[in-house]
Design goal:
electron transfer activity, AAA ATPase domain-containing protein, about 10% strand, about 400 residues, Arc Repressor Mutant, subunit A, binds adenosine-5'-diphosphate, 16 helices, single chain, iron, 3 domains, binds magnesium ion, Rossmann fold, P-loop_NTPase, Helicase, Ruva Protein, domain 3
Length: about 400
C-alpha cells in the first residue's frame, strides 16, 4: 500500500494544460487521421472545427491534432485569436513555422514562398500604427505583387496556395490551427472561409482546423453561408463515465495508485464529467489521500478544497472581468437558468431586471465579447463556463 507522494501527483488542471491521459477523444483523433490522409491524397475533405464550453478540452485536443499532423510530416502552425486583433501577423508567424517544418529540399522554391510570406506579413493593415517597426524574422527579401494587396481575402488565397504548393511537392500538407476562433474579426473570418473554399476547390493540401465556443458555427455561417459545407463541426463535450474514470485511473495506475469504485462515483458526481473539473478534483483528492486505494472519504474531504480553488481560479477570475452591470446581468441569468445553467431568453432577463431589453444590449454584448456568455440561438443566452450558474447562485452579489 504505497503512500501518496504529492510530487508525483499526475493531474493537470489549467487552461491548455496537457492532461496526463487524453480520455474519450479517440473518435475525434481517428476522424482527423482520415482527414489528413485524404487531403494528402488530393481528395476533397471538409476541415474540422471543434466547439464546446470552456474547460471541455478543446485546446488540448487541438494541440493533439497538431501533433498528429506533425507526426505525418505536415507543416503546422497555430494561432490563438484575440478580439480586435488582425490575423495578418499571427498567420505570418504560424505559416513561417509550418514552412520550416515542411523541410522542403529545394531552397530556391522555399525562398520564393518565404519572400511572399514576408510581403504578406509586412503589408500594413489600415488600422496598424504608422510607426510600427515589427519585423517578421524572415531572412529573405520580400517579393512584390503577391499576397500583398492589403485585401486579406486575396492575400490569404495567394499565400496559402503557395504554401500548399510547397507541401504538395513533398507529398505532405499544411495545417493551420486557430484556437478561440470565435474571436477572429469579421473581415478575417470571411477571408479564411473564402481561402479554404478556394483551396479546397483547387485540391490543395491545406486545412484550417478551428476550435471555439459553441456559437462558432453561427459566427462562421453569418460570415459565409457556404461555411457549413466547408467545415465539419465536432462538438466537444463532457466525458462520459468510462472516459472520466479512465482520465483519473490511467495516470494513477502508472504511479501504482488506484481508486475505490465509491471514490470514482463521488468524483464523477462532483466533476460532472467536465475535463477541467476532473483534473481539479483529481488533483486535490490525490493530495488529501493518505494511501492507495483512494476512498470516497478522501474525495469528501477534498471536494470543498477543490471547490474553493475553482471558485477563485476558474470562476472568480472570470467573474472579476465583468463590470457591475455585467455582473447584475449574469446573476439574473443564473436565477432564471437555475443550477443546471440552462440557456435563458434575453427578454426574460430584461423582465427580471425590470429593464427595457435594448438598455441591456451593451452589457450583454460586452459579456459576449469577454467570452463569458454566448448566444446559441437568437434571443437566447447561456454561460460559456460550465457550472457558472451554480457558482453565481452560491456567491450572490454583495
Ligand atoms: N480528454 C481529456 N481527458 C482528461 N483531461 C482533459 C481532457 N481534455 C482536457 N483535459 C483537461 O481539462 C482542462 C481544460 O482543457 P482545455 O483544453 O484548456 O479546455 P478548453 O480549451 O476547452 O477550455 C485541462 O486541465 C486539461 O488537462
Ligand atoms: Mg481553450
Amino acid at each position: 500500500m504505497p503512500d501518496m507522494d504529492p510530487v508525483r501527483n499526475p493531474y493537470a488542471p489549467g487552461a491548455g494544460q496537457r492532461p496526463p491521459e487524453l480520455a474519450g477523444r479517440d473518435d475525434e483523433l481517428s476522424a482527423f487521421d482520415v482527414v489528413l490522409e485524404r487531403i494528402a491524397h488530393g481528395r476533397p475533405e471538409r476541415s474540422l472545427v471543434l466547439t464546446g464550453l470552456r474547460g471541455v478540452g478543446k485546446t488540448v485536443l487541438l494541440n493533439q491534432l497538431r501533433s498528429a499532423a506533425i507526426g505525418r510530416g505536415w507543416g503546422t502552425g497555430k494561432i490563438e485569436a484575440r478580439p480586435d486583433q488582425s490575423l495578418r501577423r499571427p498567420v505570418s508567424s504560424a505559416l513561417h513555422m509550418a514552412l520550416r517544418e515542411l523541410r522542403h529540399p529545394d531552397q530556391e522554391s522555399m525562398d520564393a514562398v518565404l519572400g511572399v510570406l514576408k510581403a504578406f506579413a509586412l503589408r500594413q493593415t489600415a488600422d496598424a500604427k504608422v510607426r510600427d517597426r515589427w519585423q517578421p524574422g524572415i531572412d529573405v527579401p520580400a517579393t512584390s505583387g503577391r499576397a500583398d494587396s492589403g485585401d486579406m481575402e486575396i492575400d490569404l488565397v495567394e499565400l496559402l496556395s503557395d504554401a500548399a504548393g510547397l507541401a504538395a511537392d513533398v507529398g505532405k500538407g499544411v495545417a493551420l490551427f486557430i484556437d478561440e476562433m470565435q474571436d477572429v474579426q469579421g473581415d478575417d473570418v470571411s477571408a479564411i472561409c473564402a481561402a479554404c473554399h478556394e483551396l479546397s476547390q483547387q485540391g490543395a493540401p491545406l486545412i484550417v482546423v478551428g476550435a471555439g465556443l459553441p456559437h462558432l458555427p453561427a459566427v462562421l455561417s453569418a460570415s459565409k453561408s457556404y461555411s457549413e459545407r466547408l467545415f465539419r463541426y465536432l462538438r466537444i463535450d463532457r466525458l462520459d463515465r468510462p472516459a472520466a474514470d479512465r482520465a483519473l485511473l490511467a495516470p494513477a495506475e502508472r504511479e501504482e495508485v488506484t481508486f475505490e469504485p465509491e471514490a470514482l462515483d463521488a468524483l464523477y458526481a462532483a466533476a460532472d464529467g467536465y475535463p477541467y473539473f476532473v483534473q481539479a478534483y483529481g488533483k486535490v483528492t490525490w493530495d488529501v489521500a493518505a494511501a492507495s486505494p483512494i476512498t470516497a472519504a478522501d474525495v469528501a474531504m477534498a471536494a470543498p478544497v477543490a471547490e474553493a480553488e475553482l471558485a477563485v481560479g476558474f470562476f472568480g477570475s472570470r467573474y472579476d472581468r465583468a463590470t457591475p452591470a455585467e455582473r447584475e446581468y449574469m446573476h439574473a441569468m443564473a436565477e432564471l437558468g437555475g443550477p443546471a445553467g440552462a440557456a435563458v431568453s434575453t427578454s426574460e432577463v430584461a423582465v427580471s431586471l425590470g429593464r427595457r431589453p435594448a438598455s441591456l444590449s451593451p452589457a450583454r454584448d460586452s459579456l459576449i465579447k469577454k467570452g463569458l456568455v454566448f448566444s446559441a440561438e437568437r434571443g437566447q443566452i447561456a454561460f460559456t463556463v460550465p457550472h457558472f450558474g451554480r457558482y453565481l447562485l452560491s456567491h450572490p452579489a454583495e
